[in-house]
Specification:
The structure is a homodimer. The first copy, chain A, is of the alpha/beta class. Helix content of chain A is about 45%, strand content about 10%. The first copy, chain A, contains eleven helices and six strands. A six-stranded parallel sheet of chain A has the order 3-2-1-4-5-6, sandwiched between helices. In chain A, strand 4, helix 10 and strand 5 form a beta-alpha-beta unit. In chain A, helix 1 packs across helix 2. Chain A is globular and about 55 Å long. The first copy, chain A, starts with 6 loop residues before the first strand and ends with a helix.
Chain lengths: ~240, ~240
């Protein structure tokens, strides 16, 4: 399989970076500054809980494409109200919203990507917007060759256009691209679009009591337990 | 000025890479393989001569947006006929067309970009397509944070959408972006779109008898004679 693959395209939230721990840390630091006591794990989970519903409004045509920064901020305003946090200025809300630009990588991510990049083109195939992903890459040291995905496609995964446009931008056929993701549904959609598939297990993405996506549930081309493991299997460096 | 600038966006052909010398070298090597004697400098100049006219067909609405790889190949087919080169297979034409994916950087480029990247986000703002620029970056070692420009904008420079969409994708206002280019017209168009401007002189881009763009003809924010010089002026590393 791997000889025909030219590009590895990556889901980012959960697969490359640990959004939950990162958002909890940002919230906790903010809470200490504000003197607010809150269950920031609950807040992080609630924020992520509004992620799919917010994109559904775009997917089903109820609103035109809006970049994820915009959807994240709308969800954040909803949650600040729900959690009764009233003391943030507009620029403080913006700064908290940009916590998603500062998510931290899993411990194996940077070393694994660096090895994978010696053999493949590495591109994001994320629902995150270009600015979010570019800022994240700079702060986390993620060695992308190209920052692609939903925003440049005008469609959110798992809509097929997101995968197909990313392959087209890379000048490749879908079967020359492999999606690397920690989520079964994303990989199934990529496979339907013609992509190769690699599952990387992130069994604590959703916290200690994770009930979904703990393991590969389909016959993917590769199943790995880290980016380093995937680099081993793909014989990179 | 520079404190307000968050991203440097780059013209690529001529500014970052020396397309003419690179195409001449690729042609010369091909000619030797084929046993064809040809003035490859004339061929390179003729190929580049069809560049603006081919994009004009898109700019003026006579055809829908087509990526530069497609336009380059159409021009190449025209020139192979004009230069009476009949022995190339389709895949050899493709391979020659991809010479644009393998253009070599100017001697100061990689060191200069590496320094500039310590302080700014670096993105392409090129009429080259994403695959061309991504492949070039890998072969030439160009440290882009994001590969943007005409293809993701759906518009070729100097149309304003190319600059404005690139800034929008970076999550920035136009005045937070600076175009770095060796071409006066490109910089004037960027300035009209609200960008800051940096002219980097490439007085041999068009060969030894260059008559245009030898120097800055407008009041740009920065005027430099190399990427290293620009890095000095912007106090990078």
């Amino acid at each position: 399989v791997s000889a025909a693959i030219k590009a590895l395209t990556f889901d980012v939230f959960g697969t490359v970076v640990d959004w939950r721990t990162s958002i909890i840390a940002e919230g906790t630091a903010l809470g200490e500054r504000l003197g607010v006591t809150l269950d920031w794990a609950e807040f992080a989970d609630a924020w992520r809980g509004l992620y799919q519903p917010s994109m559904d409004q775009v997917r089903n045509g109820h609103r035109p494409f809006a970049k994820l920064d915009v959807l994240h901020r709308e969800s954040l305003v909803t949650l600040l109200e729900r959690f009764a946090i009233t003391s943030l200025s507009e620029s403080e809300v913006d700064a908290l919203n940009h916590a998603w630009h500062r998510l931290r990588p899993w411990p194996d991510t940077v070393a694994g990507l660096t090895r994978l990049r010696t053999r493949f083109t590495l591109a994001t195939l994320s629902n995150g917007n270009v600015a979010l992903l570019t800022n994240m890459a700079k702060s986390a040291g993620l060695p992308w060759d190209a920052v692609l995905g939903a925003e440049v496609s005008g469609h959110y995964k798992p809509q097929p256009e997101a995968y197909l446009k990313t392959a087209d931008l890379l000048g490749l056929e879908p079967q020359q691209c492999m999606l690397v993701a920690a989520h079964n549904g994303d990989l199934v959609a990529a496979s339907k679009a013609g992509f190769r598939t690699a599952f990387v297990a992130r069994p604590t993405e959703y916290g200690p009591n994770q009930t979904r996506d703990s393991k590969a549930e389909h016959d993917f081309d590769y199943v790995a337990n880290s980016m380093e493991d995937l680099a081993d299997q793909l014989e990179c460096g």
